[in-house]
């Protein structure tokens, strides 16, 4: 599941001389590389490490969207005019909302607000945060697949991979893009049986 991000980085070759390649590169890092281990850390009870990685993922997503927005602006093209762009915008909004929920839970955990104010229902908030995270990653994955199907995405794969212009290779790369989401969904919706025991351990990080 960690193959997709390096593949995208190799295909688009981001550097200081070009702005737009940072868009797919940063988004691939955010949702294809960082999020899955962040979710796994949460399942293991390493909440602070989870928070740090998710903050990194959110930052990458923001910078990636900014790179695309600035590039479109420099060319005088309309913003959010394609299904890919609109889905990506929805994913960004969902990411920011879910990150806000995660930050709220972190504050509640740090200051013991859940115990002091049971009416806040921290358990329900945690469940909502997890499900929202899965939905957010699903939307982001849809945006990534649409990006791979765009002219730029197909052209980048054609130049980077042998047989990159074939339907089989294109579909294989799109499947690789879905694997991180599938892993995240599995970790959240079907956690390990011993996850509950692990989460009871003191957070040492």
Descriptive overview:
This protein has 205 residues and is mainly α. The protein has one domain: Four Helix Bundle (Hemerythrin (Met), subunit A), CATH 1.20.120.1770. The protein has 9 helices and no strands. The chain is globular. The model has no long low-confidence stretch (mean pLDDT 91).
Compact summary:
The two termini are 25 Å apart. The protein has helices spanning 4-12, 22-43, 47-75, 83-111, 113-116, 122-148, 151-160, 167-189, 195-199. Helix content is 77%, strand content 0%.
* Second CATH tier, the architecture: Up-down Bundle
Low-confidence stretches: none
Oligomer: single chain
Instruction: Let me know the largest β-sheet.
Output: none
Characteristic key phrases:
single chain, 205 residues, Four Helix Bundle (Hemerythrin (Met), subunit A), 9 helices, 0% strand, globular
Topology at a glance:
Elements: H1 4-12, H2 22-43, H3 47-75, H4 83-111, H5 113-116, H6 122-148, H7 151-160, H8 167-189, H9 195-199
Helix pairs in contact: 1-2, 2-3, 2-6, 2-8, 3-4, 4-6, 6-8
